[in-house]
Specification:
- By secondary structure, the chain is an alpha+beta fold.
- It folds into 3 domains: 57 residues, Structural Genomics Hypothetical 15.5 Kd Protein In mrcA-pckA Intergenic Region, Chain A (Roll), CATH 3.10.290.10; 85 residues, 2-Layer Sandwich (Alpha-Beta Plaits), CATH 3.30.70; 77 residues, Alpha-L RNA-binding motif (Alpha-Beta Plaits), CATH 3.30.70.
- 21% of the residues lie in helices and 28% in strands.
- It contains 7 helices and 15 strands.
- The strands form 3 sheets. Strands 7, 8, 9, 10, 11, 12, 13, 14 and 15 form a 9-stranded mixed β-sheet that branches. Strands 3-2-5-6 form a 4-stranded antiparallel β-sheet, with no helix packed on it.
- A hairpin with a 2-residue loop joins strand 13 and strand 14.
- The longest helix has 9 residues.
- It is elongated.
- The protein binds uracil.
- Uracil (URA) binds next to helix 6.
């Protein structure tokens, strides 16, 4: 439980600088419990606080935990160079709150991307010591053979890796379709593993992280949702 002044509350929720938040309040754009709040010094209990800013409802959140259905042609980097950044798919408040992707997907990869402004959460989820399986659906350029599947399960040597990397699970799903589950999150890992095993990745989609399935979230490409504590619990390591 913590009480904060209204300007600090708005700033913490990503509405802008303290000065801008004070102006919003003094202009009468912030309503709580049906009452216009025009004194930025008024304090409120933040737990469960519901704000209306410009008539839009916002529940106070100390941190945000988001799943985005990343479309192709968006970059996860902080300074995107060739395509728009994934943050452009979220409300502007999230940029102010310093919401960042948890790990990265390539610009042409689609599927589940976690995002948060909780530094320790991002760090823990991205740690190589945390073995959270990531499930990928890969479309291959050449037909999927049993040898390819066996090769990926046995492990392939990538140039800059000290030891071979193996898929945790690898299943043929169609003539050109492969489901690959990886524990690590190395740069371009699926694409490089497929190339090292003699095929080529034509398209890539991340369908699940841990036990959290993208399909269960009911999102369309480009849409996002907050994750509930129950959904976050599905991201636990195996
Ligand atoms: N592996 C890749 O090659 N690309 C991704 O975007 C994710 C995993």
């Amino acid at each position: 439980m913590s009480k904060l002044s209204l300007d600090r509350i708005l700033q913490s929720q990503g509405f802008g600088t303290r000065k801008y938040c004070r102006a919003l309040i003094e202009d009468g754009d912030v309503v709580i419990d049906g009452v216009v709040q025009d004194n930025f010094k008024t304090t409120f209990e933040t737990d469960g606080l519901v704000l209306h800013v410009f008539d839009e409802e916002w529940l106070y959140r100390e941190h945000v935990y988001i799943a985005l259905y990343k479309p192709a042609d968006y970059e996860c980097s902080r300074k995107p160079s060739h395509h728009p950044g994934v943050l452009t798919l979220l409300p502007e408040q999230f940029t102010w709150r310093d919401v960042q992707p948890v790990g990265r997907l390539d610009h042409d990869t689609t599927g589940m991307l976690l995002m948060s402004d909780d530094g320790p959460f991002i760090h823990a989820q991205s740690s190589p010591k945390r073995h959270v399986p990531k499930v990928y659906q890969a479309t291959t350029q050449d037909p999927v053979t049993d040898e390819l599947v066996q090769h990926l399960l046995a492990g392939v040597q990538l140039h800059d890796e000290p030891a071979p990397l193996a898929a945790l699970v690898c299943e043929k799903k169609g003539e050109y379709q492969l489901e690959i589950v990886l524990e690590q999150g190395k740069y371009h890992q699926v694409k490089r593993m497929l190339a090292a095993a003699g095929n080529h990745c034509a398209a890539l989609h991340r369908s699940a992280i841990g036990k959290l399935q993208l399909d269960s979230l009911g999102l369309k490409e480009g849409e996002w949702c907050y994750l509930t504590p129950e959904q976050l619990a599905l991201l636990a390591p195996v």
